[in-house]
Design brief:
Number of helices of chain C: 9
Number of domains of chain C: 1
Structural class of chain C: mainly alpha
Strand content of chain C: under 5%
Number of helices of chain B: 9
Strand content of chain B: under 5%
Largest interface: B-C, 72 and 64 residues
CATH class of chain C: Mainly Alpha
Bound molecules: adenosine-5'-triphosphate, magnesium ion
Distance between the termini of chain B: 26 Å
Strand order of the largest sheet of chain C: 1-2
Number of strands of chain B: 0
Helix content of chain B: over 70%
CATH architecture of chain C: Orthogonal Bundle
Order of helices and strands of chain C: HEEHHHHHHHH
Largest sheet of chain B: none
Radius of gyration of chain B: 24 Å
Shape of chain B: extended
Number of strands of chain C: 2
CATH topology of chain C: Arp2/3 complex 21 kDa subunit ARPC3
Distance between the termini of chain C: 10 Å
Oligomer: heterotrimer
Shape of chain C: globular
Number of domains of chain B: 2
Order of helices and strands of chain B: HHHHHHHHH
Chains: A alpha/beta, B mainly alpha, C mainly alpha
C-alpha cells in the first residue's frame, strides 16, 4: 500500500488524514424504501482514513452513504458522525462531510464552473471574499484553474467530475464520501481521479464497482442485500467478493 | 447555458443601469396604449427605430431579430384593416412596432446577470410578505438554465435511438422516456443540493470555519 | 417547497424550454405540433397545480431575462408587449387549473381509459378554456378588434390544442406508471 500511505498522501498539503478522520457509527440501521429493505440492521463503525465499500447493484451501498449525511433517514436505528446524530444534526455533519455523486451532472447546479464552486460556501455562510479565496484554492488543488470560467455544458465527463469534487473540497471537509466516482470516466480520467484520491488528505469512504480503486485500502466492506457480509483488509474482502460473484 | 439575446457593446443604452431601462420601457409601453393619434404613434415608431439603432445594431440585424414579430404584426395589421378599418390597423401596427423595438433594444443591451439582479430586487417585497423565498426562486431559475442544454441533448439522444428502432417521429416515444428520466434526475439533483448545504444558514448562526487546505507546491497542470 | 419540489419545478421548466427547441413533430394525422405548449399541459398533469404554476412562472421569468426560451428561439421583453402575451401569462392560471383538476379528478383504481379521459378533460378545461380566457381579451385589446373577432381569430388553433390535450393525458398516464409522483 505504498501509494496510500497516509504520510505520503498527506505530504503534498502537510495534513495527516488520520487527524481529519471522523468516527462514523451505524447502530442497528434498517432502511425501508418503497416497501423494500435497502439496509437490514447494519451496525458498523468507520474511523480509518480510507474505507472501500463493494457490493452488487441494489445491495444498498448508495443508501449507506446517504444515511451518513442524513439524506436517507433510517426506519430503525441511528447513524452518528463524531457523536452527532445524522438526522437531527444533518447541517453540521454536511459541513464537515462532502459527498461526490456518481453523475456529476446532477451535482453541479450553476451554468459556469466558478459560480458553481461557490454554491456550498455560500450555503454555509462564507463571505464573498472568503468564497472567492477558497474557490481559487480548490481549483488550484485539483489543477483545474483553467476551467474556472468555462460553461459546465462544454466540459468532458472527467472535467465535470473534477469540478464537482472541487466544489466539495472548497468547504475543507474532514471526510469525503464517493459514490462510484469513476463510473462515467474513461481510462485516462479514471486514472487521474485515482491519483487525486490517493493524494487526498481527507478521510475517504469510496463506493466502487471499480475494484482496483479500493484495492490497496486498509479496509474494505462488502454489502449483500442490505447486510454487511465481509469487513477486512482489501485483498481478503475483494478475493471473497470476486469468488462469490463468478 | 442558453445564450442570452444580449450583445456586448458600449452604447449609451449599454451603459445605463438595468432598472431605469426597464422602468422606462414599462412606462413608455403603457403610455403608448393611451395614444391614438397616428402622427404621435409614427413618431414613437421612429424613436423606437432610433433607439434600437443606437445600440450599435444595424437595421438588417434588428430586422432579423424581429422578423417573427414583424410577420405576426403584418398579419394582425391585415386582419385589423379587413375587420375594422385602415386607421386602426395603422395605429396598432405603429404602436406594437414601437414597443417591440424599444423592448428589443433593452434586451439587447442588458445582460442576464443584470436582469437577474433586478428580478431579485423585485422578489424582495414578496419575500418580506412571506410569499416567496428569493434564494429558492433564484436557485430554481439558475437550475432551469443549467439543465436546458442537458435535456435538449437527452431529447435528441432519445429521438435518435427511436429512429434507429424505426419509431421515427412519435410524440409518445419521445415524451414518456424523457419525462421519466427528468423526474428521476430531479430527485438526484435535489439530494445533491441538500448535500451541498442548501438552504443557506444565516451568518449569525454559522459556526467557526476550518482553514482552507492549500497546496504548498504549485499543482502540475494537466 | 422542499428541495425535491424545487428540483422538479426547475427541471420541468427546463423541459418546457427544451421542447421549444425540439423541431415540431407530426401527429398521426400529419399535422405538425410544437411541443412547447404541450409541455405546459404535461407539467400540470404530472406535477399538480402549485408546482406546475411555479414551473411555467420560471419559464416566463427566463423570457423576461432575455433568454430565447420560447418556441422558435423567441424571448426577451418584446414578447411581453406583443399581441400573444396574454397566452404567455395565461400559462400560469392554465397550469394551475389543469393541475388542480388532475389532482381532484384522477383516482388510481380506475381503468387506464377512464383516467386518460379525465386527464384529457383537465387539460382541455385548464390548457384551452382558461388559457384562451386569458389570451383572447389581451389580443382583442392590443389589436383593437373586439372580443368576438379575437375569439374567431383564435378558433383555428383549437383542433391542434385538443390533440395536444389528448396526447398529454396519454403521456401522463404512462409516465405515472413508470415513476410514483404525488401531485401538489
Ligand atoms: N430513491 C429511491 N426510492 C426508493 N427505493 C430506492 C431508491 N433508491 C434506491 N432504492 C432501493 O434501495 C435498494 C438499495 O439501493 P442502492 O441505491 O442503495 O443500491 P446500490 O448498492 O447503490 O446499487 P448500485 O450499485 O446499482 O448503485 C434497492 O432495492 C433500490 O431499489
Ligand atoms: Mg448506488
Amino acid at each position: 500500500m505504498s501509494d496510500t500511505n497516509p504520510e505520503r498522501a498527506g505530504g503534498a498539503t502537510g495534513v495527516d488524514p488520520r487527524a481529519l478522520a471522523q468516527t462514523i457509527v451505524f447502530s442497528g440501521v434498517t432502511v425501508v424504501r418503497d416497501g423494500r429493505t435497502a439496509l437490514d440492521r447494519v451496525s458498523i463503525g468507520f474511523e480509518e482514513a480510507r474505507i472501500g465499500i463493494v457490493g452488487l447493484n441494489g445491495s444498498g451501498k448508495s443508501t449507506l452513504l446517504k444515511c451518513i449525511i442524513g439524506l436517507v433517514k433510517p426506519s430503525a436505528g441511528s447513524v452518528s458522525v463524531d457523536g452527532r446524530d445524522a438526522v437531527g444534526e444533518a447541517r453540521a455533519i454536511r459541513r464537515a462531510t462532502g459527498f461526490l455523486f456518481q453523475d456529476p451532472d446532477n451535482q453541479i447546479v450553476f451554468p459556469v464552473v466558478g459560480e458553481d464552486l461557490g454554491f456550498g460556501l455560500k450555503n454555509h455562510g462564507y463571505s464573498r471574499a472568503e468564497t472567492a479565496d477558497r474557490v481559487e484554492a480548490a481549483l488550484t488543488r485539483l489543477a483545474i484553474r483553467h476551467l474556472a470560467s468555462r460553461r459546465i455544458h462544454e466540459l468532458s465527463g472527467g472535467e465535470k467530475q473534477l469540478v464537482a469534487l472541487a466544489g466539495v473540497l472548497a468547504l475543507a471537509p474532514k471526510t469525503v464520501l464517493f459514490d462510484e466516482p469513476t463510473a462515467h470516466l474513461d481510462l485516462k480520467n479514471r486514472n487521474r481521479l485515482r491519483d487525486v484520491l490517493q493524494a487526498l488528505p481527507e478521510q475517504a469512504i469510496v463506493v466502487s464497482h471499480d475494484l482496483e480503486l479500493v484495492a490497496d485500502f486498509p479496509r474494505v466492506v462488502m454489502i449483500e442485500a442490505g447486510r454487511i457480509v465481509r469487513d477486512g483488509p482489501a485483498d481478503e474482502v475483494l478475493d471473497h467478493y470476486r469468488e462469490a460473484n463468478r | 447555458m442558453i445564450a442570452s439575446l444580449a450583445r456586448p457593446g458600449s452604447s449609451p443604452l449599454h451603459r445605463l443601469a438595468a432598472a431605469p431601462k426597464l422602468a422606462g420601457l414599462a412606462i413608455t409601453a403603457t403610455a403608448l396604449f393611451f395614444v391614438d393619434d397616428p402622427r404621435l404613434l409614427a413618431t414613437a415608431f421612429a424613436l423606437g427605430l432610433t433607439v434600437a439603432r443606437s445600440t450599435g445594431a444595424h437595421f438588417a440585424e434588428i430586422g432579423r431579430d424581429l422578423a417573427g414579430a414583424a410577420m405576426a404584426l403584418a398579419v394582425l395589421g391585415l386582419a385589423d384593416w379587413l375587420l375594422v378599418d385602415g386607421a386602426t390597423a395603422l395605429a396598432v401596427v405603429l404602436r406594437l412596432g414601437a414597443i417591440a423595438l424599444l423592448a428589443h433594444a433593452v434586451t439587447m443591451t442588458t445582460t442576464t446577470a443584470e436582469l437577474f439582479e433586478v428580478l431579485e430586487r423585485l422578489f424582495g417585497p414578496a419575500e418580506r410578505l412571506g410569499l416567496i423565498d428569493a434564494g429558492r426562486a433564484a436557485l430554481t431559475l439558475t437550475l432551469a438554465i443549467r439543465f436546458v442544454p442537458l435535456i435538449v441533448e437527452e431529447a435528441q439522444a432519445i429521438r435518435e435511438a427511436q429512429a434507429a428502432r424505426g419509431l421515427d417521429g412519435s410524440v409518445l416515444a419521445l415524451a414518456v422516456p424523457l419525462l421519466v428520466r427528468v423526474i428521476v434526475r430531479s430527485e438526484a439533483v435535489a439530494d445533491a443540493i441538500d448535500a451541498r448545504g442548501f438552504p443557506p444558514e444565516r451568518a449569525a448562526t454559522a459556526p467557526p470555519r476550518p482553514p482552507a487546505i492549500r497546496p504548498e507546491i504549485e499543482a502540475d497542470t494537466p | 417547497m422542499t428541495t425535491r419540489d424545487l428540483g422538479l419545478v426547475a427541471l420541468m421548466a427546463a423541459v418546457i424550454v427544451a421542447l421549444g427547441a425540439v423541431p415540431a413533430i407530426p401527429l398521426a394525422a400529419g399535422v405538425p405540433i410544437t411541443l412547447q405548449s404541450m409541455g405546459v399541459m404535461l407539467a400540470a398533469l404530472i406535477l399538480g397545480p402549485r408546482r406546475a404554476a411555479a414551473a411555467v412562472s420560471v419559464v416566463i421569468a427566463l423570457v423576461a431575462l432575455g433568454l430565447p426560451v420560447l418556441a422558435g428561439g423567441r424571448g426577451g421583453l418584446a414578447v411581453f408587449a406583443g399581441p400573444t402575451a396574454g397566452f404567455l401569462f395565461g400559462w400560469v392560471p392554465a397550469a394551475f387549473v389543469t393541475g388542480f383538476l388532475a389532482m381532484v379528478l384522477e383516482a388510481t383504481e380506475k381503468s387506464t381509459l377512464v383516467r386518460t379521459a379525465q386527464l384529457t378533460l383537465a387539460a382541455i378545461v385548464g390548457g384551452i378554456v382558461v388559457l384562451y380566457v386569458c389570451g383572447i381579451p389581451w389580443l382583442a385589446f392590443v389589436v383593437e378588434i373586439g372580443l368576438a373577432k379575437a375569439f374567431m381569430a383564435s378558433l383555428p388553433f383549437v383542433p391542434g390544442d385538443l390533440a395536444k390535450a389528448i396526447v398529454a393525458a396519454v403521456v401522463t398516464v404512462k409516465v405515472r406508471q413508470a415513476v410514483a409522483i404525488e401531485r401538489k
